[in-house]
Amino acid sequence: MAKVIMVQGTMSNAGKSLLAAGLCRIFAQDGYKVAPFKSQNMALNSFITEEGLEMGRAQVMQAEAAGIKPSVYMNPILLKPTNDVGSQVIVNGEVLGTMSARDYFRYKKKLVPDILKAFHKLSEEYDIIVIEGAGSPAEINLKSEDIVNMGMAKMAHAPVLLVGDIDRGGVFAQLVGTVELLEKEERARIKGLIINKFRGDKSILDPGIEMLEERVGIPVVGVTPYLHIEVEDEDSLTERFCGNQEVAAIDLAVIRLPRISNFTDFNPFESMEGVSLRYVTSVSELKNPDMILLPGTKNTMEDLKWLRQSGLENAICKATAEGKIIFGICGGYQMLGKTLKDPHGVEAGGEMKGIGLLDTDTVFTEKKTRTRVTGRFKKVGGILQNLSDMEMEGYEIHMGSTTLGEQTAAFTEITSFAGEEKGAAKADGVCHGNVYGTYVHGIFEKEEVVKAIVTAIGEAKGLDMTQIAGVDFAKFKEIQYNILADALRKHMDISRIYEIMEEGTDDED
């Protein structure tokens, strides 16, 4: 059976996902077969595996760091919030149903067999499993039914590294308070503390570390710096949303919908020199971008209402009339059409008018489309006509079915290679003038596609694009994972972490 180590945090966004990814890369570099695991993830950024199953992208990112293909066993339960009090519950990659928070709290212990089956499957195939917790293990109102923090640690006989976030302040209170709120047997599982996101002179911090270790009796095994690296982060607390708003020579604006999902689609643009990618929530933030991107959403109809009320719908229509590029993906694509109908109450129910920039109509269905696709752009019009005949690939995750008007032609041709639709060929997407829409997530991950889009925008503005360089996004991410691993090796006691894994916990069989 595999050795295990678990990364828990004092709060959400303490850095668990990133540190788990870094450990995955380190162990892989050291010659071990390593896999990530998170029993329950709550996220709107999801991914479709080669088997056509849905899982959280955080574990996909960690699998990339480990150098392996993502598997739904790495994330057996995925919760996708539909509103403030309910989520779509996905178990083993397939939709179980939609539950309120209260109903799911009562139900989730029934999913323990699914969690253990997935965990044991990985244990049989890998040398090391890096488990990630969720939020904080010290939520005293939730501990009795826990399946993702200390409850998971107990099931996996996992020693725990507890991570605190010094950047937000109060890191000593975070760590001491978390430890103090745990039961005796839970505290015994914590074998090391990590102070994350540190900036400054560590010698000033050292006296506090000594007092911390004396107070809780647990060694600090790392003081990791605030890392400026480009890897995928947890969607609900990403710093991308409140980051740089400066405008570069080529400016792209992503509409930050209230229930935005899979905004990872746009990450490849962030690594392009001379390109700004901004997330905006108001007309004043929108400014005058060259391209407006409408992302996916877990609730298209409710987010379209928000878009309307915020004034951004009018701003998008105005930008269209000015010849700017509008590009919608999944829910964003659905919004751009004429009508949205929800006869089964999958989202808000009823019918509403779309933005009307594309001659399409969408009906929400009870069955979710989950598939990976490969294909090519057909004849593409407008500014992005240089995409014509280029290869593309990605994946679909949606509940809607979109039909095209009689005079409207699809602009991509795709073939499914995963899930129930494997081998099926179909047309996808629409372009009308400079307005484009598609169901395919990941459509921008090919270097040639991103380069073609940036080049077309630059040339339309009269910029010299002869020296434009594309970015191989897969290679770029590999470099980032190596930078992460190098930083953790420098600032964490990796030898001690290996010893912790070898020693395990006292409750092992």
UniProtKB/TrEMBL annotation:
Biological or metabolic pathway of the protein: Cofactor biosynthesis; adenosylcobalamin biosynthesis
Active site per database record: C330 (nucleophile), H441
Family matches, as PROSITE patterns: GATASE_COBBQ
Record key words, sorted: Cobalamin biosynthesis, Glutamine amidotransferase
What does the record give as the function of this protein? Catalyzes amidations at positions B, D, E, and G on adenosylcobyrinic A,C-diamide. NH(2) groups are provided by glutamine, and one molecule of ATP is hydrogenolyzed for each amidation.
Family, according to the entry, reads as follows: Belongs to the CobB/CobQ family. CobQ subfamily.
Give the protein name, as stated in the record: Cobyric acid synthase
State the species of origin.
Hominisplanchenecus faecis
Question: Which lineage is the organism of this entry classified under, starting from the top rank?
Answer: Bacteria, Bacillati, Bacillota, Clostridia, Lachnospirales
